[in-house]
Amino acid sequence: MSRVTARRRMRRISPSGEIQRPDTLAVEEPLEIRIGGQSLTVTMRTPGNDIDLVHGFLLSEDVIGSAEDIVAARYCAGTDDQGRNTYNVLDITLRTPVPVPARSFLTTGACGLCGKTALDEVRKRTRFPLPAGGPVVDTQVLAAMPGMLRDRQSVFEATGGLHAAGLFTADGQPLAVREDIGRHNAVDKVIGWALRESLIPAHDSVLLVSGRASFELVQKAVMAGIPMLGAVSAPSSLAVDLAADAGLSLVGFLRGDTMNVYTAPERIRAVPGADSLLA
Question: Compositional bias of type Basic residues: which residue ranges (predicted)?
Answer without folding.
Answer: 1-12
